Structures are given as C-alpha cells and as structure tokens.
Fold these 4 entries.
Entry 1:
Amino acid sequence: MCSPSSASLGINTRQLDRATFAIGAALAGVAGAVMAPIMSVDPQMGVGFLIPAFLSILVGGPGTLLGALTGTAAIAGTSVVVSDIWTDVAAQVVVFTFAIIVIRLFPQGLTGRRS
Amino acid sequence: MSRASRATRVTLILWTALTLAPAVLGEWSLTQLAQYMAYGIFAMGLAFIWGQAGILSFGQAIFFGTGGYCMGLVTLDRLPMLGDSTAVGLILALVVPAIVAYILGQLLFLGRGLSGAYFAIVTLCAAVVVQTLAEQWKFIGGFDGLLGIPPFAAPWRAGGNAYLSAGETYYLMLAAAALVFVGLSWVVRSPIGTVLAAIRDDDRRTAFFGYDVVRFKVWAFVASAVISGAAGALFVKQFGFASPSLIGFGLSTEVLIWVAVGGHQVLMSAFLGALVVRWVEGVLSERLGDYWLLALGVLFVATVVLMPYGLFGQILALPLPRHLRGHGVQEPAMGRVSRSR
C-alpha cells in the first residue's frame, strides 16, 4: 500500500480502501451466514476465527486469493488432523507454532515468491 | 516557555503529585493506584519498544506473566533450590523473561527478519500459545494459576504488622516506577536511543549506515521484556495470585490500548495512559453498570482516531540533551513525527 505513489497516479485511494474494506466485511458476513446453522450464533462467535484467519492469509501468501486458499487448507487441515490424533488444545498449539515457523521461513507465504 | 521545557516542568509536576498522593487518597484508592503503577511500568516497557524502536509487539504479556509466575513460584517455595525470598523471586522474574526474549528476538529478527504487521501477528500467536501451555502445565497451577502469593513483607517490624502497609507499598511502587522511568529516559536520550529512533523510522537505511540493526532490536526487545517481567513480579506480590490471564493475548491487547491511548511515543504519556485508562475503567464500571465496556470501547476508538499521538501525546515529550539536538532546532526526544507503523 504505497499510498503517496498510487494516489499521484490519479487513483482514488481513499475510495478504494473503503470499497475493499466493505467487500471484505461482506465476505466475512457470508462466512458467518454459512456457519450459522453449524454453530451457536452469539456475539462472540467470530472471535475464535480471528487468529486462524490471519494466520491462513500469512501462511498462504498475502495479496492473492490462491494464497488465502492454500493457507486456509494448511491451517484448517492441520488443525482438524491434529485435534483428531491428540486433543483440541494440542491442535491449537501445534497449528500456531507451525504457522509461526512458516511465516518466519517464508515471509511471502507458501505460494508467494521467494525473494 | 518553549514546548520542551514546558514538558519537563509538567513531567516534574506529575511526579510530585504522585509522590504527594497518599496525603489525599484513602487506603483503598492507594492500593489500587499502587497496582496501576505496576501496569504503568509495564506500559513504559511497551512504549520503549513501540514508540522508540518501532517494534509493535502483541505479546508483551508473555513477559509480564512470566515475571509474575517466577515471583509466585519462588515466594510460594515451589522451587526449593532457590529459597523463598522476594529478592530472589524478583531476580528470577528479570532473568527468565530476558532469556525468553533473547531467544524469541534472535529467532524473529535474525537474517531476513520479521517486521511490522508480520512480527505483530507472530507475537500474537506466541501469546496465545504460551497462554494455552500455561493453562495445561500443572506445576504452575494450570487454569487456576498460583494462589496465595504473600504480599511484601516488612521484616524490620518485629511482631504486629508483618507486611507493608498500603502507603508503604505505594511508595515502593512509586520508587520502582520512577527508577524505570529515569532509566528508560536515560537510554532514550542517549546515542543508543537515537539509533533506535532511526531504526523506527527506517531500519534498512539505518543498516546502510553500518549499524547492526538486529542486535539493537534484540537488545531493545530484551530490555522491554525485563521491565515487563519486573512489572509482573511487583503486580503479583500485590494481587496475591498469578494466573494464565496475566500471560496471554488479553492482557497483551490491553497494554497496547493503554499505551495507544496515552501516547506511544513518550514514556510518561504511556505511563499515564495505563493509570488513566485503568482508573476510567473503574469509574465507568461503577457508574454505568453493564454498559461500561461499551463506553470504554467508544472512548478508545475516539482517542485513537482523533488523537493519534495519544491523550497526552507530545505534551510530555522531554527534550533531547544538547549534544544530540540538531543545530539550532530544539526537538523533543521521542516526539519525532514518523511514518506510522
């Protein structure tokens, strides 16, 4: 997000920022709607998804949709498999640690360019 | 009166007011304020790495909680080879967070290190992981934590009251806070502080100048961890118990809010931010009942949006010593306008 440079090209960065944020919020709303029949709908239902969502993007590669999908597959897959073999708590620890290691070694994510 | 000397004057007035507080405050308020001082020390540690070195860490509570647990373990005699004195507990509370921060810092900053948002997210995850582990570890009490940590003892008073009174605890905390403030201010106003400010503004450019950026970042991280550990140890002695909530993501975000609201670029602002926010929380929860959290949230959003330098912002920015100022231009030490990170 090099705001000064893209703005000087004539792009309305503020409007784009707002539009992007709105679209992102809309997508999150769709995700919530899809999850509603499967889990309890309460004010705190989104909190548990916050950090895994962040990690999915960073692990997969920020900036691309393929990255988001890859990251989600990695995080969700690992989480489900580990919580099956061990406990839910161990799954969270393992997934987060794995995510930290991947982000450290691949700052551009698993699908990003290795600079 | 120039802005800088007004800042010095206001800072001195504030410290004097804090010293004279026991004359006007009742015992309960004094106890609360002494606890807030521990939070204030914690906030100063975060302001040091965030405001001065530009390292945004979402996991500072890891060190606060570790310090608290160390003090708790030692004073509850869970570590027999170390005895059970408060002094040993304090030393352990300084050493263990330092080691953890050193390892974490080396892992995260070395080579093509993490910075900015990535570092923040990784520290966030680390905080969650550490909290989960703390909840599972039976030796340190698991989910309930360590209970019944004895308060500060007054061994010079034979018989009668074996513990420090509220006023004495307050002065102990005030002295600790003043010590941390003076120490950090000294670092900030030294050439080391200038290098950290340069790293905050552009760490690659600072590296081009020949400074070992990784080493500076790691040591700044370690210093802030030591201060957070000390704050945790002092807090736990007053609070009486150490639980996983002191080590996790919740407290990490809270301290960020205190520092953001107070002013992350100036040490005194961050310290006051912690005191003020905690005090406001107390007042609001009394007055508004169930809606206090809503009011607090609105307050936070308003402060961060309208006053990016915090409530106290630049008012308390102490001036740089003469030999570090630019020619003919008097600029405050931490008050430099920088690209927001």
Note: Chain A has a mean pLDDT of 87.
Entry 2:
Amino acid sequence: MIGRTVYDIALFASLFIAPFWCTLLIAALGIFIFPRYVEAIALFVIVDLIFHAPTSTMRATNSAIMVPLSLYAFLAVLLRTWIGMYLRNRSV
Amino acid sequence: MPKKYSSQHQSLTGFRHDRDRVQRRKRLLGILLGCTLLVLVFRTPVEGALATLMQFIARPFFVVANTTGEHLGGYAYLFRSKESLADENKRLKDALDLVAVEAASREMLRAENDYLKSVLGRHSDRSFLLARVLASPGSSPYDTLIIDAGADDAVIPGMSVYVDGDFIIGEVTRVFGGSAVVTLYSSSGNEFPVTIGTSSVPVTAFGVGGGNFRVVLPKGIEVFPGDIVEVPSFAPTYAGVVDAVKRPEGSSLQEIFFSWPGNMNALRYVYLDTKEGAALSNEAERP
C-alpha cells in the first residue's frame, strides 16, 4: 500500500518535472506492476484537462488521449495476464 | 429408487463459478460506469469547470518545479571540467559578439522600415504582454504551452503569441483565471499560411509537431537552408528558418522543412500581442 502510494506520488510529480514520455513510461510500468492501476487513467484525464485545448489534434473527440490510452490499458492488462500465466506455467 | 444425494453429483467448484460470474459482472458494470462518466465529463460543460479546477491546482506546482529547476541548474557547472567550461565560454562569447553585430544592423533596418511605412501612412507598432511559460510542449502529449497570464491579465482566446525575434509560435486557445493554454501552430495536422523563398511565394505550411513545419513546393522555386520563412502581415512576423530541403530524384516537387530557431522545450518567456487582443475583444462585443 505504501509502495503504491509512493509510486503514485512519483507518477504525478513526474508530470511537472519530467518530459511527458517519462510520465508515460512510469504509468505504463505501474499498469504492469500494480493490479487495477486506475491512477494511470486518472493521470491521463488530468493531462487532458490541463493541457488539451479544443483546437488540438484528433478533433474527433474533445479528449484526445483517452481513446489510445484506453486501448493501451486494455492491451497492457491482457499482456500482463499472458505474461503472468507464462511465468506461472514455466515455474510449474 | 430415489437418487441418492452425493458429492459426485454436485460440482465442487459450483460456488466459485457463481462468485467469479458476479465479480465479472461487477467489473463490467464498473468499466461501463467509468466510460459513461468520462463521456459525461468530456462532452459536457463539466469539462470546463474541471479544467479550471485542475489549472488552479496545477499552477503552483508548475511554478515550484520551474523555480527549483532553474535554481538547481545553476549548480550544473560543479559537474563539468574546467576545460569544457572554458571552451563553452569562448564559444558563447564568439556567438554573442556575432549576434550583437547582427542585432545592431537589424535594428537599423527595422527603424528605417518603420519610418518608410509611417511616411506612407501606416504604422506597425505592437504592444506586448510578457508571460512566463509554466509548461513547455515537452510536458504534455499535445503541442501546447501553459503560460502564467490569464483572464486576470486581459488575455483572451485568439491572441497571437510570439517569441524573441518576432517569431510567431501560436495562439491562445483556452483561458483560465491566472493561466492560459497556447496551441502552437506546429501542432500535427495544423495548416499555417506563410511565404517562403527569394520570391516570397505564398504556401501552406503543415505542422509536424515540436516547432517543426513541412512545406511542399515545385522544384523550380529556389529555397535554401537558412532562408527565413515569413508570415504575411504588415509588421515583420516570421514563422521559422529553413532547416533542410529535400529534392527526391524523379519527382517534380521538393519538401522543405523549417522550424523555429532555438529549443522549444527550453522556452521561458513569450509575448502576447495585446493590440490584437483588444481588436478581437471589440469584435466579440460588437452586436
């Protein structure tokens, strides 16, 4: 619990002090390390609310990052499940 | 004969399947609820209120991060050798001398240009509002800046944003109380009218992100790396400097890539054209 809290603080702090690709990497790792890591979803909603302007790209939706993020999160959860199953089968 | 009840007729995992089914249903309902909430947030005026709240919360963090970064950056010399510092010092001094000479001649030309325009009855004076950049384009997945001037400083959407040297970089697209979001013209997919080449050919530049643009022209138009790309306007306004020209063999077209001079991610201050802002405001107030 404490580890996850510290990780969350580091994730949100990276939004202000690090380039966005660092934040993305930390969030991606968090999805793999922690179960049901909804903090990543919350982070990207916050990114959309702070940085997104109506005339930015991907005009199909007001929120430009949620569509690819949702896809990524779905694939990440699947991948995590498959990797977990593979490692469990290897150890048996 | 009545069937005897035995454990073989009842699945040992029956209860676990029911539990799993309930869990899956709950998870699915949770996801659907989350998606519905997101749609409600981003497709309704709730987004504006939430964005204002987020900006209000995030602004002090941006200020602290910038201040701390600047303060710590002053100690970077401790980790460098004396020789490398001396070399960089000499290189920067030489560059500064060159820039100072160019700036002096540029100021003379600008003054002459302004005088000639005033003789012909036109004045190209601008008035600028200085704003500090809180978040550079590298901090977000979008090509946007966050600046520390907002509605409290009479900033309105549509105001043009400049950097040193009369280079226009974008416009204000969203305004909050003490901050604003500036969308750069180099946003991917954005189209920007400019003039390029020795003949000042009007073309459309396509943004590719990060302060970079791409232009496609016929090969007959001469463009060279280092050429200044201008924005058609009365006052001198520039869009960038040509970095590279690509002329593939067998094609009648050439691709020109230009960008703003300097590092967009190291931008600290920008200038907002308040005179244009006043004109936009008057236009908005007109019935």
Note: Helices of chain B lie at 14-42, 46-73, 82-119, 274-285.
Entry 3:
Amino acid sequence: MSDLLWHVIAWRLRRQLPADRVEPVLVDLLEDYEHRLASSRMRSWIWLVQEARSLDAAYRRDRRARGRDWTWPRVESVWRDARLSARSLARTPIVTVAILVTLAAGIGANTAIFAIVNGVLLRPLPYPDESRVVSLTHRSQGSTTDIPSAPYLYFTYRETARSFEQIGLWRTGTATVTGFDRPEEVQALFVTHEILSILGVPPAHGRTFSARDDAPTSDLTVVLTWGYWQRRFGGDESVIGRTITISGMDGVVIGILPQTFTFLDRPVDVIYPFQLDPAQVTLGRYVFSSLARLKPGVTLESATADLASLVPLAIDRFPPPAGYTRDRFAARPVQPHLTPVKEEVIGDIGRMLWIAMGALGVVLIIACANVAHLLLVRTDGRREEDAIRVALGASRARIVTSLLVEGGMLGVAGGLAGLIVAYSVLAVVLALGPENLPRAGDIRIDPFVLAVALAISLAAGAWLGLLPLVRVRDARLASSLGNGRTIGVGKDRQRTRGTLVIVQVALALVLLIASGLMIRTFQTLTHIEPGFVRPEEVQLLYVAGRLADPDLTTQTQRNIIEAIAAIPGVASVSFNDRAPLGPDNQGSDTVLTAEGSIVPRVEGQPRPLRRFEFITPGYFQVLGTPMLAGRDLTWADLDGHRHVAIVSAELARQEWGSTAAAIGKRVQVTPADAWREVVGVAGDVRDNGLHEPAPPIVYFPARVGRFWGAPVMTFANGTYLVRSPRAGTEQLLREIDRAVAGVNPNVPISQTRRLSDVYRGSLARTSFTMTLLLVAGAMGLLLGVIGIYGVVAHGVAQRTREIGIRLALGAKPAEITRLFLRRGFALASTGLVAGLLAAVLLTRFMTAVLAGVSPLDALTYVAVALVVLMVATAAAYVPARRATRRSRTQTLLRL
Amino acid sequence: MQAPLGEFEVVVLMSVLHLSQDANGSAVRNDIEQRIGRKVSRGSVYVTLDRLEEKGLLSSRVIEAPTVRGGARRLFRATASGVRAVRHALSTIERMRKGLEPLLGDR
C-alpha cells in the first residue's frame, strides 16, 4: 500500500518540480518516509501527503513568481483582461469602429468567396462514392477535342471492360407530355438502364430501370424527378403504375427520384431508357454522353488503357454504316478519355474561382495590415502601460495573454460583423452571378464555412494582438517610462510601419493590374463581331415541330414561319436546328468532303470537323449576317429537296482559299450521298462562343434528300428566330404562341429568350471575374491609401515639436512639406516597384481567362502604376501640408 | 551589491554553514526546526536552497548514495559570497540593534 502511494506521489512531484532538481528531492523525501515507516509511527501516509503538498505549493508559487513558465491563465484574469480591453477600445471609438469595419469587410468577403469555392469546387457531388464516377469521352488521334461516346463502343465496353462496375450512355433533350389540357414541353433525360445505378441514388418511391426495361421489345418505362412529380402530379404517390404519353409513346411510371437528386446540375423532369437494339448498331454515331463507375481501387490510367485495348475489338464486332468501310474506322481508332464527373460539372469555372479567392485573400491581408497600423498607433500609449506592469512584477506571459485577449476580441467581433457582410455578399452574388455558375444551389454558409470563418477571425486576431510584441521584447523600459515625447522617433518602429504600407501598396497594385487585364479582356470580347446585329431585337424560341410525315413537317414549318411573320411588328422569321451561341453547341460535328479543296489530303490524317446547321430561308436576314457571295436558300430549295448548301466565310477560306472561290464548288457528306452545290457564302458567326474563333459552318436546307443515307430528312426540332423591336415582351410571346397554335396546337413552345440574353450570358463569366477583381482592387487601393495617409500623419504628429522648432529656426513651410512628402513618395514608389514585380510573376496564372491581351500588357501596367502613384502621393501630400500649419501655432503655445 | 536577503534565506544559509559538509535538504530542515524550535515547511526549504544557489551564495553537487533507494543526493555548501552575505546581514541587524536595548531587553 505504501509502495503504491509512494509511486503516485513520486509521479506527481516529477511533473510539478523542475526536471533538473526533482530526483534528489525525492531521494530525501523517500529516506525520511522510510524512517517514519520503520519507527512505525501511525499514519505516516498522511505525513507523506502533507510533505508532498508543501513541495508542490512552494515550487508552484516560485514558478509563478519567476514568470518562467507560461501557465494557463485563470478564467478570472482572462475575463478581467477582456473587460479592460473593451473599456480601452471604447475610449477611442473612431479607431475601434474603423478597425471593426475593416476586419468585417475583409473577413466577410473571404467567408463569402470561401462559401462559393466550398459549394462549387470542394463539396462532393451528392452521389455515393462520387470519386469513382467518371465521364467517358473520346478523342480522335492527334486531336484534343472531346467527342461523345457511341453505341458500338458502349455495347463492347459493357460486356468486356474489366475496370468498371457499370457503364452507361445518356443524353438530354426535350419531350412532350400530352394527355393534359395543354401539351407540356419537359426536360427529358434519355439513358441506358445503368445510368441511375451508376449515380447510386435510390428512388424515393417505386424503382429505377432494370436491364429488361432497356430492351427494345419491352414496354416503355418512365422515372420522374421529385420537382416534376410535385409540379405536375401534386406529389400523388398513386402515379406509380399510371401510363403517361411522352412524345407520342405510352410509358408506365415506375419510380420517383428523391428531392436531393440532381443530374450533373442539369434540369431534368422525366427519364426514360433509349432501348437501343444491338442488332441495329453500326460503327460511328458519336452522339451520346457516357458515365461509368470504376471498380474500387482502379486508377484512371489503367481504366483508360483497358478501354483503349477494346476499341479495335469494337470496330471488328459491328458493321460499318452505309457508304463507309470498316477500314476507315480501323485506320483511325478513337482514344477513350476519362474525367472525374465533378470536373465535368464544374467545367472551367474552377480557375476563375480560385483567382477570385486569391484576390480576396490578398484584400484580407491588406485589411489586416491596415488594422495593425491602427493598433500600432495605440501601442505608443500601450508601451508605457506595459513597462509599468513589467516593473510591478507582471510576467511576460501575462502581458502576452492580455494582448492575445484584446486581439482575439477584435478578431471575433470583426468576424461576427463579417458574417453579416458574408450573407449580404452571397445574396448579391447569387442574384447577379453568371447563369452558368454550376451548383449554385450548393452554395451556402454551412458549418464548415463557419468554422473556417472562425479560424480566419482568430488567426487575424492573434496576429493583430501579437504584433505590438515585436517591439515589446526589446523595449527599453527606462526610455519608455521616461519622457514619452522624444525628439527623434524610434527607427525600428518607423520601419515596421513603412513595411506594412509598402506591402499594402504592392498588393493593391497587383489586384488593380489583374482587374485592368480583365477589363481589357472584356472590352476585346465585347468588340468582337459576333456575326449578328442588334441581338436585343431577336426573339428565340424552341419548338419541337417534327412530325412523322416529312412533307407535312416542312409544310407546317413554313406555315409557322408565315404565321409568325404576319404578326404586326415582326420584320423576319427563320429557323435553325441549332441556336447561335447556344449551350447545345458542343454537339458532334461531322467530316465533309469538299470538291476542289485546297486542303492537302494526307493519307491516314483525320479530316477536320465541320459544323452542320439546318436552316430555312431568311436565316441570315433575321440575324443580320451579310451574304458575302451568291444567294440565300429559297423555299423551292426545300420543297424540291435540291442539293444545295451555303458555307460560312471561314469554311470557304479553309477549303478553297477565298469566299469567291467557294461558289459553284460541290460538297458531300458520306460517299452514298448526293453532291451538293455551294450557292452562297455567309459572314462568320461565332457559334462556339466569343472566346473561340468563328467555326467553319455548312448550312443545309431544313429538308434534304439523299443525306446520311436517307432519301429524305427534315429538321424541324430547333430554334425559331424572330426579329422584332418588340422582342422579349410578354405580348409578342403571346401572339407568337397563338400563331403557332393556330397552325398546330400540339406543338409546344419553350426556352423563350432573346439573343441578347444568350450573348450576355457568354460574356457573363468574364464580366463576373472582372467585377470581382475590380472591387477587390479598389478596396485594396483604398486601404493602401488610408495606410499611407496614416503613416505620414502619424509621423507628423510624432514630430510636432521638431517641426515647430525647425520652423522657428527659419525653415520654410514648403521644405517641411517636402520632407514628409518625400517619405510618403518613397514608400509609395517602393511599393510600386514591389507590386510591379509581383504582378509580372503572378499574372501569368491568368492566361486561361484572358483574351486579346497578354498578361504583361504594357499599357495596363503603366496606366495602373501611374494611377496608384498619383493617388498615393496625394495621400501623402495632405497630411504633409497640414503639418506646417498646425505645428507653428502648437509649438508657440507649448514653448 | 546585491539586493538584501530575506530573513528565511539568512536562516537557511546559516543552517548550511552549521552542517558544513552534509547539507542536504532534509538535514537543513531538521537542523532549523531543532534550533529555532518551530516547524518549517519542506517546500520552502528546498525552494530557498534553489534560489540561494541561483544567486551564487550556495553551490551544490550530486553524489551517489547507494545506501538510499534511488541513489542520487544533492548536497549544498556555502560559497565565499554566501559567507559574506551572512556576515553582512548579521552586521546590519547588529547595527540596527544598537540603542534599542531598553526596548528589546537583553535577551
């Protein structure tokens, strides 16, 4: 028993006493203890405990008196520090409010951007084990453009690929649901049966597709999404098992997906299977997107290699389409390409967001530097107080604690105010943000974001609190306790302040240069000729007008166009199966054989891809695109399905060298098709977006014969374009609706928007980045200016007596002004140089989002540098000027 | 000159002088208790010994003591400045005492 007690006591004392003294103390204690035990005095254990406690207490008191160790501050002293800090902060309300506002702005903005980065980039998509879901595309040899997948590849991969649990195909489009009062156009997702189980989200009601549902002979089954189920069926569970009519087919509803389900951030109402027939699959037909789920532990590289080895098998297995030979495919097999599905959803917005986050982080640093400067002004009084406390026996640890408490309070208060800023900023961003900001629904301030905000606040607070310590360590107490007003100012103090200001100016410069580059990018983009004029007058609407009979389809199409053209105020109407600048413009293009082409044909080299568009007459008139040569299409071309085509200027240049040379040349799509004569050359339209050059386009009539192996094909599912000054008004839309219904009431209209909206959307990403950087840069510059003003003003205040004496001794006021101006100018120019260097190093990361301007654009750099220099000098001039006026009277009063 | 010693510090120093060679913490404490007839806390003795050593008035060494479990024992001894400090403290008291005999009595 006594042995155990001894061990506990010894263990405790070893922890409490200094390590280099404890062992002999224990030896003495043990010796005495054994003597007592030997003389069998009663209750020696009480004695032992008492002795141990006396050692414990004595050493603890001693340690505290020395201030050698930092012990956890007791709660009462922290609370006392907090109250004292609060009181002293309240005594200088202006400075305190300035500090809190600056911190709130910096922390709040950073919290907001982090919430965005978190929601869009960091949080995983809502699918189980989402890192194993990949998007599958293909590339032809030597190209980096992604082509979608094809059925012949899908069927082969499905059966023989070893790296995947499942592979599936999908495609989005629209479908018409009839059987209710008006036909409804809905967002449809067409899938092979594996897709929903690849995503792994179990249905809320009913079931999802099985392999049998996907068989071409089975009845059609349909799965609904939660939103559509609520909207159309009012959340009625009995809809499962009911039959609805989709695009003319009868389908049984078998399941409802849960509310949390999203399909890769796209809007979906109904889902149903392709029911592909393997017996009818041929090579080619790269029109389906593909998703797959990797087996656990399989890498992207090994999976890609697995698929690549199967492509030759696939080419052997399935027959080539009519008019092609197998060798054409075997000669240039496609390469599979896998990307994690999250990247597919996010797209290229990730880089822009990281730039924005970096920019705002920089603003936070500038804000902290400013607050630090404001706090340093307080430290002058602080130093006397701290010196007295040290002289009175306060340990350095206690002073550090009290500084941390004050800094922590400021940080947390600034952080709380910052939360208000963050919520407001997020609300504004989500309202104005680009329409193609993916996963906007996932952006919110969740516990993780709050934790990060708290961490930022505490870190800022700790840094601010400890900054005065940089000099307290070597404070010469005597000089601080003595006369507070010294003739000269401490060199190291001035240097720290100066460094802070230089950093601020440099950072502001970097931000402003970055935003300047974005402004020029924006200008470049807005000045690019998109290929159409006055887009605000062009109304776009999507109509699914294809009917079973091709003649009826074309007739209906013409009737619709004439009915809309008859509306008062409508100047012209036309149709294109693809909308200009539309989101579906990443579809598959096809190769074209051009007669008399100047492009050298190299054996085995893939032919360039050309964009196909199917139009009605008057298309270029509606857009305002000029006809550079030849003529437009006529209705006679469509009715007689004449073999004609129109090409864009870019295609004419690429194939035949000039627009004039194109007229009369012939083009062919597949070897089994008719040769078509080029009758016109149209001006370029930037259909792939403003960032990309205008693509080479071939325009075919919306009704063609002997095309793609078919005798007649019509294209009536697409976009109608209406030019009218009343575009976008509710009235015009209603009149168009009535006109279309008058021709065929079963044809629904959707996706009504103006061409100007689409145009602005394509600029949105750039303008968003530009605005963010501009705001950050302006904030940074403002803070930097305040910093310079503060430094110079403070220097003036410190040296009031010196100035007064100099004036009294005959110095001219202008000389004094110049003295301080020189200091401010020196600070500003050092910051300028540092900032220019930093900008040169950092802007190269922006090349991906810039257009038409290099990251080292001289004009931007020079302009920004001049602006900053002027503003900074002005900021130094004001207090320098006031110095002379105040000091003279002040000195006379004091002397 | 250094700051003056506290009363207890002088007492501990004098005890070490009494014990000459065998001054470990326990011995000092027992010696003091015997001489002044009052209980003294172990902790205050050890802490004072450490502090006197830091001030350079004592020196210490650690010796092996195989008779004791654990083995190592720290022994203190007064340095020259320690002896001087005691002398100085006592003479200060003596000088102050002169003239107070009627009040304090002879004892």
Note: DSSP finds five helices and two strands in chain B.
Entry 4:
Amino acid sequence: MSELINTVADKAATISENNAVIAENEQKVYDAGYAKGYPVGHAQGEADGFAKGYEQGELDGWADGYSEGWSEGSSYGYSEGYANASRETADNFWGSIQDNGNRTNYTYAFAYWVDANFIPAYPIRPTSSGHMFMGAQITEIPDGGRWDFSQSTAMTYVFSSCSIQRVVPSISTVSASDLSALFGWNSAIKEIGEIVLREDGSQKVTYMFDNCSNLEVVNFRGKFGQNISFAQSTKLDHNSIASIVDALLGTASGKTLTLSRTAVNNAFDGGSVGSEWLNLIATKSNWTITLV
Amino acid sequence: MRTSIKAKEGYVLTNGEIYGVEVFLAEGVSAESFHEITREEYEAILKYEEEQIRPPLERR
C-alpha cells in the first residue's frame, strides 16, 4: 500500500512538473506570437486609421472650405454688385438732374431740397443761379473743384433762407449785377470760404447778408460800392470784419457799411473805441460805418 | 480821427437812411442830420422793410 501511495505521489509530482513546463511553453508561444503579430497589427491599424481619418478630414475640410468660400464670395459679390448698382443709379439720377453735365440754368434747381447730403456727379457751372438753394435743407456746399459761378448773370437769393452752414469753395459773382439777398435770411450760415466781387463796386448788394445771425467767417475779394449791411451778424470774427472793411471801395461816396456792435466789441481789443478798430476804419474815411 | 456819434441807451440814431447806435461819419456827413428814435421804432422799420423784400417760403 505504501508503495502504491509513493507511486501516485511520484506521478502527481511529474504531472505538476509537466504542467509547469507546458505553461512555460505556452507563455513562450504566446510571447512569440505577440511579438510577431503586434507590428503587423499595428502597421495595419495605422494604415486603416490613416485612410479613415484622411477620408473624414477631406470631407470636413471640404465642407468648411466650401462654407467659408461661399460666404466670402457672396459677401464680396454682394458688396461689389450693390456698389455698382448704386453708382449706376446715382449716375442716372444726377445725369437726369444735370443733363449729363450740360445743364447751365440752375434757377431754383435745388430749392427746397430735402436731403442734407448733396454730392452732384457733374461740375456745376451755372449761367443762371437765382434762388438755386432757396429753402434747401442741404447743410454744406463742399469743395472739390465742382463749382464755378463766374458765368452766372443772375445770383439773387441763391443761398437764401436755407440750411446751408458752410460754403467751402470760392463763389465768384463777377458776372452778376445784382446780388440782392444772396445769403439773405440764411440764419444757419456760419462760414463762407470766399466771395469774389467785381473790382468796380458796381453790384447791387441789398439784403445780401440780412439776418445771417450765425455768420462767423467770410472773406471777400473785390469791392463793395453800395450800402452793405451785416447788422445781424453778431458773431463775425476779427479777420472777417477786416476783410469787409478792406473790401469797401476807396472811391465810393455817400455809402454806408453797417456792422453789429456786438461783433466789433468782441472782435477788436478795446471794442469800438479801441485803437485797433479806429485805425482799421480810418483807411476808409469815405464810408460811413454804423454799428447797431 | 473821424467824427463819431452815439445814441442814448435804448435809442438808435438815424438820418432817414442810416441807422446805428454808434455812427462813424464819413467825410462830408454831418452829425446834425441825425436824430434819435427808440429801439422799438427801429425794429419796426426793419420788420416792415423785410416784409417788403423777403420772398415768402412757399414752394413754387
């Protein structure tokens, strides 16, 4: 019996040793297979993953690029199309108003114009411009080399009773004999770049600046030869008053310049009794100068 | 130095054509030709003259 037990024990030990060997061999086989399979599997996985990612990336990139391109092109095309259409519309409009640049009679042309903006497409060279901006709500006559009044023979009430605050370009009045109310009752006007008068002082200037209560700056070339009044222009500055006095015709007789006493007192050191003012008007002793 | 004349406070000087509270006379213009009117009278004259010359703001 004990011999049998010993034999069974021996056999069990052998089986156990064999199992250990088997396990060890199995591990070796596994390791060998893993070592071989991993790189192959990895390479394949990488290839497949790349292909899949590339394909998806291509799809996404196309979608994004398309959207952005469409949006950009749409926006750009719209802007350019709109601008072209606007230009064409504006050209058609001003072409009609200004007879494609050939218009010369501007009498009442922009009277009661309701838009503050005013940018004509063609130069304005009137031969007649009476009441041209009367009652208009335009706020500025800008420069830009588009204005030439030198041929206008009618210039009464051109800038009368309107909202124009600044007239930038030089306004030549030399062809007009009558400048009555040129800026009359324009209580908005603040600055007038330059008015060119005739040198002989022969122009009628009645009410030329009547009620220009906000006028601050004005310059003149040429001469006044008739009674001229700036009675309501209480804000005229020093240089403007000097320009007005300088524009008084030296050979006129019995003529009167009327100014605002407030303007003179504010513009000159010592006001109307100061030497600066008295020296200025001493140069035009042939004119009565009255302050109201 | 030219002759100048001044109106009393609240008055305006005139010779019928020229109006002012302070008048610097041209050579040959006499101060005696001027008299005083009230400020209100002066402004009434201005208003009347404006009504005669200023065109109504009506659309044509």
Note: The mean pLDDT of chain B is 88.
